[in-house]
Design goal:
It is a single chain. With 526 residues, this protein is an alpha/beta fold. The strands form three sheets. A five-stranded parallel β-sheet has the order 2-3-6-1-7. Helix 3 packs antiparallel against helix 4, helix 4 runs antiparallel to helix 5 and helix 6 packs parallel to helix 8. The radius of gyration is 24 Å and the shape is globular. It starts with a helix and ends in a 9-residue tail after the last helix. 40% of the residues are buried.
């Protein structure tokens, strides 16, 4: 997926400035979509609003309107149906005006959903039936399923603020059904994997059942990932983590990208005396200018142009709980000074306010950079490091506890099923051995994404083999783009959404590519 993303990014974006703004906007959009899937509409609105502002500033209509209709979905979840309708209709009309019928249909679904919440049943039904026909033409099964639910709701005159809640409930019922089937079904799953892979039955059973309830796992219901391991090295690390959780001292988490530093921070919070209060992550690497102060400290109405209301700020939101300063090594010296002031006095002043407020928060800082070297190079304040580095924990790289891959792979296979990515019958001994022997420079995150890809590509079958993909690619070889696009569409039976996930790009980007390359989507649909 990495090499495909590199090639397609070069094909789609000409200038470095445009690529940077589009990438930044897409990152916030992706994070906002994750919050929508969780039902966290307040956080989704913050992330998607930021993506929308960046898109407007970039002058790129795609960067502006793709997050806009998702922002409308967040507003809908918060009960702001008229505003949601306005935002979604504006996005729908823009996409339609530029000939992007698929993205226009996605935005139109949100606009029609807003009509349901306003009680305009007949008008909503008329729009939804037209949207359903368009989606059938493109074969977008995920959205077809959603629109079908909304059509049923229109007939029953039932408002639906959060269509994804129905999907979450459905997955919950599926999980409950699996649990109610008892040991027989669990053992059947373990046997199917065992027969294909040669793994010891008891080990597979532990990976599919009891380990999910183990203290070494985050709750699957609250967090779509896990902190898990049974190797002596990783269990010793978790013991240190849990001991640190009992303290109120600041913690500095170090480790390579993808090792799960935020998940470890969440574990510390949930095992501390502050568990009943908020855990608030703040990405220091994505904030710049006035965004840093407004995000962290909040602002009052009229603080600057466009501040039509007040904002609490993440530091005050975390009062009584835990504030994670993720990628703290990316902070500029100016921002480090402002952060140090808050840590020293426990005081924050919202932008535009003369009032200073006290906050009681536990700080966890995380970085994948060599923080000590940054201090030596004059890029990070030593007095700030003293404040953060009371307890230092280094999260192990996956290669340091590679035997835990045997535990992680079955979990990620099940997680893919629960996230609607599909299901497989099991994984072969050969494929699992190859996964365990791989270096995984992206650590657990890379392993999870690769398992998700394997599940998507092996629907209903055993994962019989796995080969690491080449890490070298000639991104200037544009002749490979049509081949990549056609291969992804063939694997996903013409689903633009699923094919875009395989390639690591946005579905609207893939839709534009198919038009540019003259690829007919109907050729890949049965």
């Amino acid at each position: 997926m990495m090499e495909a993303r590199s090639i397609l990014t070069r094909a789609l974006h000409d200038s470095r400035t445009k690529r940077l703004s589009r990438h930044t906007c897409g990152t916030y959009e992706y994070l906002g979509e994750l919050r929508l899937a969780e039902g966290n509409f307040h956080r989704a609105r913050r992330l998607l609003s930021r993506a929308h502002r960046i898109g407007v500033a970039s002058g790129d209509p795609e960067a502006q309107f793709e997050p806009q209709y998702r922002l409308a979905e967040a507003e809908l979840g918060l009960g702001n149906a008229p505003l949601a309708r306005k935002l979604a209709v504006e996005a729908r009309d823009d996409f339609a005006g530029r000939g992007n019928r698929l993205e226009a249909a996605f935005a139109a679904r949100v606009a029609a959903q807003a009509l349901l919440c306003q009680g305009s049943w007949a008008e909503a039904l008329e729009e939804l039936e037209a949207i359903h026909a368009t989606l059938e033409e493109f074969g977008e099964q995920f959205e077809i399923h959603r629109v079908a639910r909304l059509i049923e709701a229109a007939h029953n005159q039932t408002p639906i603020r959060d269509i994804r809640a129905h999907e979450r409930d459905e997955r919950g019922r599926q999980d409950a059904t699996t649990q109610s089937d008892g040991p027989a079904q669990t053992q059947a799953l373990a046997t199917s994997v065992s027969d294909a892979s040669g793994i010891n039955d008891s080990a597979v059973t532990a990976a599919t059942t009891s380990s999910l309830d183990s203290p070494s796992f985050a709750s699957p219901g609250s967090q779509p990932d896990l902190v898990a391991g049974r190797s002596p090295h990783f269990l010793a690390f978790l013991k240190t983590v849990d001991a640190a959780a009992n303290s109120n001292a600041p913690i500095l988490l170090l480790g390579e990208t993808g090792v799960g530093k935020e998940l470890v921070a969440r574990r510390i919070h949930m095992r501390s005396a502050r568990a009943a209060a908020e855990f608030v992550p703040f990405n220091c690497g994505t904030s710049s200018g006035e965004l840093f102060d407004s995000e962290l400290f909040g602002y009052v109405r009229g603080a600057y142009t466009g501040a039509t209301g007040s904002r609490k700020g993440l530091s005050r939101t975390a009062h009584g709980g835990t504030l994670l300063l993720d990628e703290v090594g990316e902070l500029s010296t100016d921002f480090q000074t402002r952060l140090l002031r808050m840590l020293e006095n426990g005081e924050v002043r919202p932008v535009g306010s003369d009032r200073i407020e006290n906050v009681d928060i536990r700080i966890i800082a995380a970085t994948n950079r060599n923080i000590d070297q940054l201090v030596q190079d004059g890029q990070f304040r030593q007095d700030l490091l003293f404040r953060l580095d009371i307890i230092r924990l280094e999260v192990p790289a996956l290669r340091e506890h590679a035997e835990d891959i045997e535990l992680l792979v079955p979990y990620f296979i099940d997680l893919a099923r629960r996230n609607g990515l599909g299901s497989v019958k099991g994984i072969s001994k050969q494929a699992l051995r190859r996964l365990m022997n791989h270096d995984w420079p992206g650590n657990v995150r890379e392993l999870r994404n690769e398992v998700f890809r394997l599940v998507t590509m092996n629907q209903g079958r055993f994962i019989s083999s796995w080969e690491p993909r080449s890490k070298t690619v000639n991104v200037a070889t544009m002749s490979s783009v049509p081949e990549l696009v056609r291969d992804s569409l063939k694997q996903t039976s013409g689903s633009v959404t699923a094919a875009a996930q395989l390639l690591g790009i946005h579905r609207s980007a893939l839709y534009r590519l198919t038009e540019k390359l003259g690829i007919d989507l109907s050729d890949f649909r049965g």
